[in-house]
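Title: Request for sanity check on 3-hydroxyisobutyrate dehydrogenase prediction

Description:
We are preparing a figure and want to confirm that the structure record we downloaded matches what your pipeline produces today. Could someone re-run it with the sequence below and paste the raw structure tokens into this thread? We only need the token string, no images.
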Amino acid sequence: MKGTKVSVIGLGAMGSALAKAFISKGAHVTVWNRNTEKVQAMVAKGATAAASAEDAIAASSLTVICVSDYKTADKILKNKAVENTLSGRTLVQLSTGTPKESREAAAWAQQHGAVLLNGDILAWPRQVGTDAATITFSGNEKAYNTHATTLKLLGSTSFLGEEPGQSSVLFAAVLAYLAGSWIGFVHGALIAENEGFPPEKFGELIHSVSPMLAEESKHMGRVIDQNKFSDPESTVDTTGHDLHLLVQHSREAGISSELPEFAASLFQRAIDAGYGKEEHAAIIKVLRKVS
């Protein structure tokens, strides 16, 4: 992509990966970061250093922002020097934020004559620039289409819709799934380790059954979307019973029972609410009832 100009603000692990991906694909990349050592590291790879955030934005029609979160981004962007530079430019916000923050950021950009696309990276830094990286975007479709070729240098991209918060909604949903799977995996590794079974072997087992787990995710999404839980292969009753046994096992083994206690409690609430004969995804019915 020789001749393509793009600026990157934020050079942490992910921001640096973004800048490197653009550079490796031949783009002219301008970078800014509060830590000048990180800037110089990118300059050594072929980037151009900007003296300030506003200078980085002025250097390109497209600026990608990737810092820890929207609050940090606001400290960098919400000042007169930057706001006076925004007119006619497109910002791509790849920092982590909530859907509400995404909508507010899009409105702020519009007030200053700019367009802001909200995006989320579903990948590790080492995967950026390859098809293994999935990046979602939402916001102004015309702006996305204008810059789609440049953004695709970062990985496999998809546009979710013009509602600015949609990408953040999906990222929050994915993060909830990941948090549960990470905690569940660690508890499983704890069980294995406590009994002298190598956690690495446990990891290999999970890897081998991952196609089945992926299919289960599709199934659960479908039945929740349709709100139909009456044709179970595994019921809330069955899973609830198994989770109570997991609590028992944890106590007998002298290991943490925090996770199984939480899970067993949640399934018990669903059983008590009369959902015991439905499939386990029906626990969403009790989660929907916020007290």
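Thanks, this matches our download. Residues 5-161 form a domain with the Rossmann fold fold (CATH 3.40.50.720).
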